[in-house]
Amino acid sequence: MTTQIEKAELLRSLHVPGVPLILTNVWDAISATTVARAPGVRALASASHSISNARGFEDGEGMPVEEALDSIRRIVAAVDLPVTADFEKGYADDPEGVRANVVRLIETGAVGINIEDSVGAEKAPTFPIEVAAARVAAARAAAEDTGVPLVINARVDTLAGGGEWDDAVARANAYLDAGADVIFFLGLSDEAKVERAIAEVHGKISVIGHPGAVPLGRLAELGVSRVSFGPFALGSALANLQRTAAEVTALGDYPDDLGFEFAL
């Protein structure tokens, strides 16, 4: 993999309905290299929540944009795989600001982006649909400015924020029309909702996986194109760390995971 354009094209090609791209989210260089070495992994995704918390900030753009960009730059530099970045709301109030910041994101070497449509740190309220679509269009314009075919995963927060189904679908299709490649549809809590989203959204669907969600194999059968895990991946790592701390503090056996060999 020698060019950023090639990485972007590879990332786009990995979004196949029924054969979903599985992205175990990372938050720094060492988590990136660790996941990258796992069998079958072909791309990486950052998680803004995890990066923010690891650096001592709250999620929801509590971290300065300079630190957000630095975190992505370090992840990209650590691996040779395509990296898609969770860039929250673009760290800007208006579409032109989003466009400028996405250009800066692309300059880190990232080849994909998540962009959200909620206004604040919560899932509601959301930007008016025309404003949210303009922000997606701004991200696409930034890709055109740089010549890198950025893969845009546009997040629809409507259902997760307590909104209505029809609004969520209208937003999804508006974001696709504005230049998104994939719709990150939050709130698809059961198989029926996944099926309905795939039927009514005119493009590829991305979902978040976690305990209690629709099983991964079933998501593939239903035609999902991408599954990521957001901050749940960091939660898994921290749960294991806490278990290890409890075991050794109690003078128990050395956990086998203490012998895990890691490297940048």
From TrEMBL:
InterPro entries: ICL/PEPM (IPR039556), Pyrv/PenolPyrv_kinase-like_dom (IPR015813), Pyrv_kinase-like_dom_sf (IPR040442). This is Isocitrate lyase/phosphoenolpyruvate mutase family protein. Keywords: Lyase, Pyruvate. The keyword Transport does not apply. GO terms for molecular function: lyase activity. It holds the Pfam family PEP_mutase. Gene3D superfamilies: Phosphoenolpyruvate-binding domains. The keyword Lipid metabolism does not apply. SUPFAM superfamilies: Phosphoenolpyruvate/pyruvate domain (SSF51621). It comes from Labedella endophytica.
